[in-house]
Structure formats: C-alpha cells, structure tokens
Amino acid sequence: MNSIVLPAFDGASSPADIPGSPLHAAFAQPLMLGLFLPIQNGGWSISTLPRSTDWRFDYNARLTRTVEALGFDLVFGLAQWLGKDGHGGTLKYREQSLDAFIATSALAAITERILLISTVHVLYGPWHPLHLAKFGATLDHISNGRWGLNLVTGHVETEWAMFGQPMIAHDERYERAAEFVSVLDTLWRSNANLNIRTPHWNLHDAFVSPRPRYHRPVLVNATGSAAGIEYAVRHSDLVFITSPAGAHFDDAIEALPAHTARIREAAQRIGRRVRTLINPTIVCRPTEREARDYHDAIVAHADEGALDGFVGQAARSDAKAWAKHKREQRILGGNLHLIGSPEQIVEQLLALKRAGCDGVQLTFFDFEPDLAYFGEAVLPLLVEAGLRHPAPAPTHQPILQTTP
C-alpha cells in the first residue's frame, strides 16, 4: 500500500500526449469546434423572440448527434444553481435546467466520437474526490475515453448559500480546486490502494477502477483571473477563456492576443501546453444585412426583467472574466458576438485563430436551424480556409433542417 502526501499532480502527462486518444485527435484540428449545449431554458439569449431552442434532453441529444456528424470535437453544458423563477422576467430565464454532469454524461450512450465534458462545482456541498474519481473512471470506460471534467469553483454567493456554505475567497477556491484535482489524478493513475493526505482530505486504502484509457479523463477549466490561469495551466488540458474587452468583436479581437499569450507563456514556464477555447454566439445569414436584421430583432425583444436579474447577479459575483461585458451585450449572450454572412463569419474565426484562440465553443439564438445553417454554409468554408480538416465519415447523418 502506498502513502502519498499531495500535491503530486503530473499535469504534463495528458490524454493529448497519446496518439489515438480523442483529445489528441481534437488537438490536431487547426481550430477546435465545440457546442455549448442549451440545457437551460432561454439558452444564452435573454430575448422573447420566438425560437425552437429547448433545455430538454431530447433536444440537446439531437444537437449533439448533429454536431458529431458534422465533425465537431466536443460539447459541454453550463452548471448553475438558481431559485424559483430563475433570473426572472417573462422567460423566468434559466429556471428550468438539466444538471450538466448527468446530462452530458448521458450523451455517451448515443454518441461515438465526440468529446463529452461535464461541468461540476466540486467545492459545493458534499462532493468527495473519491466519488468523482469513481464516476469519472466509469464514464471514461462507457465513453471509450471521451469523457472529461470541466472543474469549476463557484463565484456566486447565493449558490454557496444553497448548500449551506459560506463562499470561499476567490484565490483560495483555486487552491482548494488544485488539491481536489490532484487527489483525482492520483486515484486515476494508481493501480494500488492508496493512503492520501491533504489539508482537506484524508483517504485510507482508497482505490478506483477501471483505469482511464489515456492516463486520465480530459480536464477543463473556465477562468480569466491570475489565480485561475495559474491553476488552469497546471491542471487543465483546455482553458475556457473570455474576452477581456466585452462581447463586441472588434474590441475582443484587439484584447485577445495579449490575453492568450499570457496563458501560453504561463504554461510554457512549467513545461506544458494548453489549448484555449472561447465562446462566440454566431448570428449568420446569407448576407450581412440579413444577419444584422436578425440580431436587431433578437435585441428588440429583450426580456428586461430577466435582463435585470441576470445583470444583477453578475454584479454580485467576484468572477474577473466578464467585467467588461455591457448590459445590452447580455441580450444576445455569449462571450463575444460573430455577426455576418458565411464568408464574414469565417473571416472572424480566422481572426480569432490569429489572436491565439485554439478553438471556439459555439452558441446560437435558435439552435436547431442556426446550427444547421452553420453546418451547411459556414463549415465547408472553414475547411477551404484551412481552419478545419474534413470531418470523418459519420455513421449517422445530421438530423437538423436548415431554415436560413
């Protein structure tokens, strides 16, 4: 039996290092493509303009099967804890939501290739790293190495209160997260009973099976602060970044090169390489005028009550990443806005690549038709532009119908 005092995290040894792993294949793409699933009502847009977007599992399963057939690399969902009426307004924005861990994991049974990233607030409530290590090992087995963990720490005091806990200070949360993931990593890599001692965890004769196929599951973190970046470059494969300058594309593209360089350099200092993903909301139509009209209609139908609730909660958060996002930019949602014709969307994605973004985690206003149009009109242009390798031949076809 081995006795271990952590930290003992071997961050340099990643699933991406193993040819044949799903993460290795995803990292081979010039620009990774992901879909941010709308597993909460209202998705990302605080607008009452009619649309099909739905939080229910069957809808999100259709989206996932479609992006897998289109060759996308990953999907994941938002984790949140809101009270009755959500953020309020006519929409009761995000009152209805699926648990991101359960919903994303369930997709393993109906997919074959795409990476499935589960978001978990590991510091809330009674989570124990031994539980999550066992759950993760099981999901790694079910998904053939396609499951990953987006480990988040929680930045909203009312969420902590739901679990009867006082909110931990910002930088301390990342220290606790590093401790938690180091325990996970040690359990996933060991083929022996372990005694593990950390400031907050004491495990005796702990053992987890089966062994993950590629060292460990994929690890993801969303951050923008100095403490968060220090955590992410040590303990993650993918870093989910935000625009430091708000959602307007021109502002974002000016600020992003320095931000992404900071992350790359922090990783290089400890001998690692991580990839960055950013979340654009795509508004695309055959012409720029049509795309602008679509955007303007979405904004014109803003649910002001829900917007007040959402912006109010953001103001009470101690998260650093969204400080420059303006109230009106929250109506469409997403971390930045890409608006235009298919050709213009490709140019904007090229600009994001040049700014140091390794991938995009896409959202749409009306997910089914907007995604279908993206697959039909934009994706072939991304291949022509060298941003995507052609998708592998699917075993199932896209099931969404386009209505540009």
UniProtKB/TrEMBL annotation:
Residue ranges crossing the lipid bilayer per the database entry: none
Limits of the Luciferase-like domain: 33-358
InterPro entries (alphabetical): Luciferase-like_dom, Luciferase-like_sf, SsuD_RutA_monooxygenase
Molecular function via GO: monooxygenase activity; oxidoreductase activity, acting on paired donors, with incorporation or reduction of molecular oxygen
CDD domains linked: Alkanesulfonate_monoxygenase
Protein keywords: Flavoprotein, FMN, Monooxygenase, Oxidoreductase
Pfam families xref list: Bac_luciferase (PF00296)
Protein name: Luciferase-like monooxygenase
